Model the fold of this input.
Amino acid sequence: MADRSQKYYDELETRSRDARAESLASCLPELVRHAQENTTGYAESLKETDAATITDTQSLASLPVLRKSRMMHASGKELPLKDFISCSMADIDHVFQSPGPIYEPGMRSHDWWRFGRFLHALGIGRGDLVQNCFAYHFTPAGMMFESAAHAVGATVFPAGTGQTEMQATAMSNLGVSAYAGTPDYLKAILEKGEEMGLDMGRVTKAAVSGGPLFPALREEYNNRGITCLQCYGTADVGHIAYETEAMEGMIVDEGVIVEIVTPGTGHPVPAGEIGEVLVTSLNKDFPMIRFATGDLSAVLPGESPCGRTNLRIVGWRGRADQATKVKGMFVRPEQVAQLVARFDSISKARVTVSHDGSSDQMHIQFESTEADISGIDEAVRDVLKLRGTVEWCAPGSLPNDGKVIDDSREIG
Done:
């Protein structure tokens, strides 16, 4: 358990670049080998991989991307998660369900999802009473934050979701000092309590996730004397990144490796460019390797002023799944990536879908070093299965917003 009086959760947070590279060179090949030997899913997808060669993020990028669709239909089993866990079902403490459905395991072992690091950065520790308003059924969110609170020595009131009047009464009666839940629900609890004439002034810390934290809402909490920080995680890989008191981007958790790639591919984008978040979890119980979250973000250059040295990302910037139907045919980011890959001179593409009042229209913009490429119209029809107009753009001129497909049609 980390001492709340200590600034950092552990020594991992302030490692040098060389120490991080040395650690990665050791743990990455070990993780890949473990997954190959102990999971049926990776035994198949990584059967041609020499684990000893996967020693850094560059070599990691050579491995296939794991998408949620594969987890849902890994091998036609009733419980596909069996293909990705490295232990028997009898050794798992919990099973959770996400939309799909996708089933994820959970374990009672110390801070298994690793959110304790985030709570420590917020200043939560021994002596705090945390009102945990994340859901405890189907989703692992409630258990994630309960496990984290225990890891830092805090006491938990497992409130779950809903029953706002009861939440406010408990928050006042118990003298709750910290809240965990979605960003806007704390506001609803506080306002309900004030409406009931209750003392709601003892909450000083809020650990939020699962929704947007708008600047105005953060400022409202700050005016109430509540420090509100947010983190980012998923049911599949646990904690991914978190804010600290510096509030300059989100620092990547020490138990994962984050890559930012062009949506629909596994190809890393240049630093600062928005792309899809891929996560490799170093958790050997459930070794997710290059798991596609479907979220968009970007790498923030430099190190945090708070002194933590790990990679930073800018936070959530939308969803990467931009598939849409045009004239009854699906157009997907993976197809746009295939189109770009056909031509050496093309570095980036963006498909814009519109409607002229009578039919769908498709316009494709290419960043290219050449002003004209023979065969591009044929390639568009071959890969996208549709005709569209083509526009050549100078390298770097398309928006850095992570969009590969922009559907501008008004549906209503």
The two ends are 53 Å apart (CA to CA).
